[in-house]
Predict the structure.
Amino acid sequence: MSVYRRLLGLLWPYRRRVALAVLLGVATIVANTGLLATAAYLLSEAALVRLLFGLTGAVYLVRLFGLSRAFLRYGERLISHGVTFRLLARVRTWTYQQIEPLAPGGLVGKRSGDLLARIVKDVDELEHLFQHVIGPVAVAFLTVGCAVGALLIFGTAPALVALAFLLVAGIGLPLLSGLLERGRGGRRLAARSELDAQLVDGVQGMADLLALGRGADLALSAGELGDRLGSEQRRASVVTGLHLGLSELVANLALVAVVLAAIPLVGSSRMGGVYLAALGLLVMGSFEAVQPLGRAFQFLGRTGAAGERLFELANVRPAVADPTEPVPVPAMPLLEFDHVGFAYAPGEPRALDGVTFALEPGSRLAIVGPSGAGKSTIVALAARFWDPTEGEVRLGGRDLRHCAQEDVRSHLAVVTQDAHLFNNTVRANLMVGRPGATEAELATALERARLAELIESLPQGLDTWVGEHGQRLSGGERQRLAIARALLRDAPLLIVDEVTANLDPIVEGEVLVAIRELMDGRTTLLITHRLVQLDDVDEVLVLDHGRVVERGTAAGLAMANGLYRRLLDAQNQYLTLA
Amino acid sequence: MERKLVQEARTARRPLVLAVALGLVGVAATVVAYVAIADLIARVFLHGDRLDDVAGNVAVVVLAIIARSTCSWGREVAAQDAAVRAKQELRGRLIRQLLALGPGFSRGERTGELVAAATAGIERLDPYFSRYLPQMALSGLVPLAIGGYVLWLDRLSGALLLVTLPIVPVLLILVGSYSQEHIEEQWLALSRMGAYFLDVFQGLPTLKLFGRSRAEGERVARISDEFRERTVQVLRYAFLSSLVLEFMTTAAIAMVAVMLGVRLLDGGIAYRTALLVLLLTPEFYRPLRELGLARHAAMEGKVAAERVFAVLEMPAPARGGSGRLPRGDRGPEIQITDVGYRYPGSVMSALDGVDLLLPANARTALVGPSGSGKSTLVSLLLRFLEPETGTVWANGHDIATLDVESWRAQVALVSQQPYLFYGTVLENLRLARPSASDGEVRRAAELAGAADFIDALPRGYDTPLGERGARLSQGQGQRLAIARAFLKDAPLLILDEPTSSLDPESEERIRDALDRLSAGRTVLVIAHRVNTVFTADRIVVLDRGRVVEQGRHRDLVARGGLYARMMADRRAVAA
């Protein structure tokens, strides 16, 4: 329940708009109901009195309701959408503020990509909070109150009968549907995602499928899964159809029942017969208010679950926290690992074990090793995304734990294989490296990253959108853009992590040229599993299973009969231009 | 687009007609109920009838509204049935089309995206078939039926209703086409907002490294706010069409009511009739309002439909031929003469005048820079693509004249990243020969050097693989593919080597397994390993779609061409 209270709390700053939207919502239904009821009264009065004079009030009301309803609804929709978007903006900002300190340390896990997508979906889910949950419930509550109140003027019996039917339609039917639907939604979703997965799988593996002569199998199994999804959907339609039919039935029965309840009142002259038709239409009209409650019930659970997951973010502890009184990092590019041991979680195998090295100002150090050796963990520790489990990481002689994260990172320029390119323009991506960079600075960075020619050839130049994850660029272009960004950063200590992974050898060569440019004049930590261009590196560390197993110059290690030599031999088994 | 979708609904004609018919019967039942109610009220109000006197009316009303509700129920079920059928049919056609287009088609990044969007998009067409189509028919028929009935009841009111009928669509088109554009824009913007948010989240480590993560927080707030302002601006227009519709409806009700009232004064109309007309007026407009809602729900499917039809309308390569290649006990000799191919929409030829020979039972290595046409050549050999010029001969038969399935049955493919589908190891292996016994599958796994790691899996051969199953290394995946090739036992073998080193254990086993597999077959290897080219019977060097050199390793090195340069480069980079 507390989650709903917190969700309501999110709406609190917009309480005036919320109230206005709800009032307009009530007014919309009142206008419609009033239109039909006063029209019925108008007809009855006209049939009875036969005096135009006696009708002016009713005529006036009919016109008022008839002309205002559409505008009330329009206003209600605009304001409630406005509230929704305000709410979403607020939740987005709040969520960002929760996640920002957590990334990436606090979000570790194999499926962190899924986690982020989940969070984004949860935020979007809150779109329904006001429009489909709180709004309709408030409107229904008030409108039913108005309708029952109006009926009480004519008599208790019609009012109670109407209330009973409204409750059945507003609460009973949604509960019934919920009961009949229980567990089905999940099965439907599972059937659909299985079908989607099968199709994606089939398309990706089509070469093998066709070569194996099994193309027809794909059509067959997709057909079967489609049938399964179809029968789940058919079953669901039985329930939604039932709900639909029953709500119509209840609304119409209510009309009949209220009229029947009023007949004795008319007979005993406790109520004017002239109101009989109006009474019936008033009841029928007020069902408009309870009709969206079915959907509100559905969304209630969903928004609650989404809210709960989001609020949980606030309880996640970040992997690293700034000290209360941070010490400034000295401006000396000296990076030291002193017997560093690290495990991502207690009980997990160590990603690093007793790693010691010093990257002296102006020098170059390479760390090589097979994948999974712990190379990227070193980068994460150097940037203080995590703190070591044992030992110390020092920058400029200062233990990183005593320094502010932002201060530490301001001394580093990091280019990684998964450097993120934002779905924005080339310019915006570069500006991340140096906000407020001038055109000339951007041009120089592109030039040095060997990207200037390409960008000039694009019709929109720097203002070209790079697409999601930079998809519109090739792999090599993406890496060179990341390099240009790091060039703009212009920090004294450079860390290059596997930038040529998954690149074609020719492209690898081009990227390496850009990397050289970046390394020029900077203290560099070069991390790679490809043993290329290590000649002018002062020292090479060979890492295996989190431990340093060899160290020396590239030439020396190539002579020795160790892991480096084996890696080199394996690499030489492959054609470079193939 | 709409016409195509309507065409598509042919297979679901029956349930659609049923849904519309039930909708019409439901309206008829409603009319009956209202007639009885109007009569009941008139009798109680004007003639002072008591409850007992109107019992007959009550019975009619209750029966009629039960009938109406049942129709609504049935209509929903029939409409969903129609959607399920239409989607299944469309999905089937899409899959058949994708199979006909072949993997060569979905290779490009763009087309890959298109395929993914099309397959996932079919479900989004659901509201179009289940709601919009039946509603469209009903919104044409119901107002005419009710309007006709009211015209019969009372000429003036009926005329009034029917006169407004054409005004509504005209107004809607005027406002609608304008707001439609805006709504579509908004749909796009909405999805972009979510995508932007996700993008920022995923980029957080990068932002942190650049010390920009806090500043981005302010940007998130600002962009969300800008987005809200823009959206509300747009919605002002987008809601106009429902404003118009609603206004027309309620204004018409008010007009009808006042007119009826005035005519009642001078006895120009009976009270009962007047009340019935009033009750029917909202029903007259209701289908149009529902159409607006259904249209909104169907909108999402429109973009999806465009993608689906984009794929369906692509010309698939013609793969005629009914001949069969007699299967000998040796591998076939493959002769490629003057073959050229250009991908649709591409300026450069992927292959141009390629002549090469794969001698029977020999191992030929194909090398060349990426983009030189190696994969295209493989696609042509498997007839995923058909050559634009030239011919591929197998033992003197033009393979284009052979039945595609029977030809592919003679070719085994071991690709770089073999497809492991969602299913068990056993099922994955049996893909190659569904009739294979457990023993034969095990034997093939042993020959492929895969038996050991399969036995080590948690449930052995019954371990599920694929996205939700065990994750295999690339080397293990390759060994499964080799086991499949053993099971398939085809005389022509095409092998695409991984471009970089696998785990050392896999490397050695794969080499041994491939040696066993190659014996007695014609083999084409897309070679990435030095050792493979050293031991190949022939080497073919491809560059920019042309064969630039062919021969043995030693001869090619001596020639000092591209191949020799590649070998030299390798040493230079490695040093």
